[in-house]
Design a protein that fits this description.
254 residues; alpha+beta; 4-stranded antiparallel β-sheet; two-stranded parallel sheet; 7 helices; disordered N terminus; DD-CPase-like; transmembrane helix; carboxypeptidase activity; carboxypeptidase; membrane
Length: 254
């Protein structure tokens, strides 16, 4: 259509937004001009209808997705969502073939990559006059069964209360073989206590653990709502460990 519209009687009912273009006054010829204008208008309407019919299959005329329906990205996240139990995420139990001892008696073990870095970290701390003491490493689901349900019963704790300090079986980072509880060899009374944060061992870990690819699992006000555990550290020094922990974090409860 052209940029100008003819002024035709009874068009005053058309919304103002559709009549913004400059108006053209009828010239001489009166009825003849009105008739010509009407024919032009009908032709334009017919052309517009044909154009819309031709464009029926285009993206502009196709029905838009229901905003109530989730996008493909949201749907994928919902499909991949990981269920948690009392704030704890599920972890697979490491194979015994992948574990190495980090203590002389062989009682405490970690995955090979984590064990090598832990031993190096312990030696570096000792060279600085700090004694790191491994308290717990890899745990089986069966061992975690006692630590959660057995201790819960002994201490007359509720499930939610127990979950603040111990994961249910199948949901502990210790199953992965990448997590280790660390104490100060010169202050054993602080083992598995928040008071561990006041020791030389904790201060050394804060400043140096990242050099050996260890990080604090549950700092204060952590997103999972787990009680602050300054003694609980995990290894994130290879792709397997990164995927184990950070993929789980991204899929934590919404």
């Amino acid at each position: 259509m052209g940029q100008e519209k003819l002024k035709i009687p009874n068009w005053d009912e058309i919304p103002v937004a559709q009549r913004e273009n400059q108006r053209v006054e009828p010239k001489r010829g009166g009825v003849l001009w009105l008739l010509v204008g009407g024919l032009v208008g009908l032709g334009a309407i017919a052309a517009l209808a044909f154009y819309l019919f031709e464009m029926e299959g285009s993206p502009l005329t196709q029905s838009q997705p229901d905003p109530a329906e989730p996008s493909s990205e949201v749907a994928e996240r919902q499909e991949l969502a990981v269920e948690n139990v009392l704030g704890h995420l599920p972890y697979q139990e490491a194979s015994p073939d992948d574990l190495e001892p980090i203590t002389r008696d062989g009682r405490i073990r970690l995955r090979r990559s984590a064990a090598q870095q832990y031993r190096a970290m312990e030696a570096a701390a000792r060279a600085d006059g700090v004694i790191l003491s491994a308290i717990s490493g890899f745990r089986t689901v069966e061992e975690q069964q006692y630590l959660f349900f057995g201790v819960k019963q002994q201490r007359n704790q509720g499930a939610a209360q127990r979950a603040e300090v111990s994961a249910p079986p199948g949901y502990s980072e210790h199953h992965t073989g990448y997590a280790v509880d660390i104490g100060d060899g010169r202050a054993p009374a602080t083992n598995l206590s928040v008071n561990f944060e006041n020791t030389a061992a904790f201060r050394w870990l804060e400043q140096n653990a990242s050099r050996f690819s260890f990080e604090l699992s549950f700092p204060q006000d952590n997103p999972q709502g787990i009680a602050y555990e300054p003694w609980h550290w995990r290894f994130v020094g290879d792709i397997e460990s990164l995927e184990t922990f950070y993929r789980a974090q991204n899929l934590r409860r919404e």
